[in-house]
Amino acid sequence: MSVERIQQQFRDSAALTQDALDTLAVPIAAAVDTLFGVLANGSKILVCGNGGSAADAQRFASHLIGRFERERPGLPAIALTTDTSILTAIGNEFAFKQIFSNQVRALGHAGDVLLAICTSGNSVNVFAAIQEAHEREMIVIALTGSTGGAMSDVLADTDIQICVPSERTARIQEVHLLTIHCLCDGIDAMLLGED
Questions:
Q1: Are the beta carbons of 48 and 80 closer than 8 angstroms?
Q2: CA 113, CA 151: separation in Å to the nearest integer?
Q3: What does the domain layout of the chain look like in residue ranges?
């Protein structure tokens, strides 16, 4: 493995992060305001995604329920990616497409938020979860990449899309992780004050 190849990975990541700074700051700030408002009203956040995005969903929920960087009471967030019994039952008895939407139908209420994470914006099960969230009068925050994919076409005016301007999955996931950290930090700052 060449050192130059490794250094190029770092350069590419840093370049995208810098490019995304101006594009994403406003929608991330809007997402923080929305998430804080939902939590302040006693509602909850449901989070879903596949593969690396499933891991991001779990990380986000764990930061809200546990803590991010400062001590505070836990906040209501549910990663829809974690219960293998639910996932395998729905996938087996109905369809993989429904593994998130069935959970949104059972757990989501008007005033809740669905944080939908998908690098391509084209995962059918995440797409179905968004449609179900809209049926339940939930707000959707979509973390996507590239052009936003099919998810872009179903988002409502009240929804927020944070679309990373890249075609590379690894780079999109890196910025998604930074975005998740920004969301958690922003919620904490609104709850606890800026440190």
A1: yes
A2: 16
A3: 25-192
Q: Give pTM, 2 decimals.
A: 0.96
Residue type, 44: K
pLDDT tens for residues 145-162? Answer: 999 999 999 999 999 999
CB atoms within 10 A of CB 34: 19
Of 40, 101, 23, 68, nearest in space to 177 by CA: 68
> What distance in Å separates the CA atoms of residue 141 and residue 112, rounded to the nearest whole number?
11
Q: Which CATH class is domain 25-192?
A: alpha beta
List pLDDT tens digits, range 39-82. Answer: 999 999 999 999 999 999 999 999 999 999 999 999 999 999 99
Residue type, 172: I
Q: Rounded CA gap, 26 and 49, in Å? A: 23
Distance between first and last Cα of the chain: 42
